[in-house]
Design goal:
This protein has one domain (14-455). Helix content is 82%, strand content 2%. The protein has helices at 3-12, 17-43, 46-59, 63-66, 69-81, 95-132, 144-173, 177-200, 206-226, 228-236, 245-277, 280-305, 308-316, 320-354, 358-364, 370-394, 402-455; strands spanning 84-87, 90-93. The longest helix is centred in the last third of the chain and has 54 residues, at 402-455. The protein is globular.
């Protein structure tokens, strides 16, 4: 197949360099995730599997200290970048836009220094409190010596990554996604190799710390080496207009912060409840399913997410026709992909249950039943339009989702806690599907429609 033909196919499917690397990273995660899943199944006990995924849920609590600022940074930087460019690895262009971008970078770095310190202390303590809390089912769990050191090291490494998050967000907002996504693709490749080696060697939960160390090295290279001159030139240009944090950042950030904290309860509470109320082994089954579906959704959203800076630039230029053309085409692609992914995963669970052999039987014992998997797959599909419209609206540097997000997230959290505690994974599945398809997605799509109609002049129909 010729290179020209590949480019034509890529253009038809909305794939440029940035999307190509983002999709490659997520496809790599999906494909190699099968091997990772097998190693988890065959190299960890069912109890260790539960702890493995519980680590993820607790780490996601960084939203309580980070408060979603990285999303605001991307959107604000993209608007300034419409008047700037890179020449010889240095930022040039409109002096006022350059100075405003520099002030955004400086203030964000100060915020994240405080956030990283708070994160390391509070999340470490939260983990110790949670894992030491008596479980309703298997109260024995792992010995503290088996989970405490891996947990502490994982939190510290994640805190160091948090220090670099504002700089990588600036790069995303400034249209450097091809390079950023290329580095992250190779982070994924190296991280997978480290996880596989660590698990195969019998180090169990330390695999997560190894993966975090690889991500930290990649982000350090990106910010300190590859774009070192980029950030140095920003500091030199910090002499003119400044970002007004109170009027340009805080109004959007506090809305995202509230939504993000509530979203943590809506997406991660189920796993922690099942872990404590139905045992570590059941928590591990739920975690494996949730991780696979999340990876599929992440891959399918790459087409839309990587266009976030471009959306911001088109909005700054008032080019709403091109904005809508891209958005509708890429959103349809993402919907098709999540549907295919969910159906494939559900079919795979059915196969390992219906055609038992030595390997399939072991896998079947570590994943939920077919019906629970199908219910969660449908819920993830129903959530896709909400995710797409959320990116579109926030690219305007405004966020009218606060009240809908509070309503929907509380609905999800309450139903998941209630039904998950009583009926386990399938109860959580019904709660999640109902809350997403009946409450959250309809509310968010309605908000998007209202905003698009009122913010744009004569918006074109899709």
């Amino acid at each position: 197949m010729s290179l020209q033909l590949l480019k034509k196919i890529g253009h038809h499917w909305g794939i440029d360099t940035a999307v190509g690397y983002a999709v490659s990273a997520r496809v790599w995660q999906l494909l190699t995730g099968q091997l990772t899943m097998l190693l988890i199944v065959f190299c960890l006990t069912d109890v260790e599997q539960g702890y493995y995924y519980a680590f993820f849920y607790l780490l996601a609590m960084q939203i309580f200290v980070e408060l979603g600022l990285h999303v605001v940074i991307i959107n604000v930087a993209s608007h300034e970048w419409s008047q700037l460019q890179i020449v010889d690895n240095r930022v040039t262009g409109d002096p006022d836009a350059l100075s405003r971008l520099a002030s955004l970078s400086r203030k964000a770095a100060q915020w994240y220094l405080l956030a990283a310190c708070v994160f390391v202390v509070t999340i470490t303590v939260a983990g110790y409190a949670y894992f030491n809390w008596p479980a309703e089912e298997s109260p024995a769990g792992l010995n503290r010596l088996e989970w405490a050191a891996p947990w502490t090291s994982l939190v510290v490494l994640t805190g160091l990554q948090l220090l670099l998050l504002p700089m990588s967000s600036i790069l995303e907002g400034c249209g450097q996604l091809p390079t950023v996504n290329k580095v992250r693709f190779w982070q994924g490749v190296a991280g997978s190799a480290v996880v596989w080696t660590t698990m195969y060697a019998g180090f169990g939960l330390w695999a997560l710390s190894g993966s975090a160390a690889v991500r930290l090295c990649g982000e350090t290279y990106l910010v300190r080496s590859r774009f070192g001159q980029f950030f140095a030139s920003l500091q030199e240009g910090n002499t003119g207009q400044q970002i007004d944090w109170k009027t340009e950042v805080v109004p959007l950030q506090w809305r995202i912060a509230i939504q993000g904290t509530l979203h943590w309860f809506a997406t991660h509470l189920a796993g922690l409840v099942i872990f404590k109320c139905h045992g570590e082994a059941m928590g591990g089954r739920f975690g494996l399913m949730w991780t696979v579906l999340t990876a599929m959704q992440s891959a399918s959203m790459a087409w839309v997410e990587t266009r976030r800076p471009l959306f911001g630039q088109l909005i700054a230029e008032h080019n709403y026709a091109e904005l809508d053309r891209l958005f509708f085409r890429l959103s349809r692609l993402s919907m098709i992909l999540i549907a295919i992914g969910g159906a494939t995963f559900t079919t795979g669970v059915y196969v390992v249950n219906e055609f038992p052999n030595a390997i399939f039987t072991q896998i079947a014992s570590r994943v939920p039943d077919v019906w629970s998997t199908a219910v969660f797959s449908m819920a993830f599909f129903a959530f896709q339009p909400a995710l797409c419209t959320n990116i579109y609206v926030r690219a305007h540097k405004r966020d009218p989702f606060l009240i809908p997000a509070v309503i929907s997230s509380l609905t999800v959290a309450v139903l998941v806690f209630w039904l998950g505690r009583a009926y386990g994974i399938v109860g959580s599945g019904y709660a999640y599907l109902f809350a997403i398809s009946v409450v959250q997605t309809p509310l968010w799509v309605f908000v998007w429609h209202r905003c698009r109609s009122s913010w744009h002049t004569d918006p074109p129909l899709p």
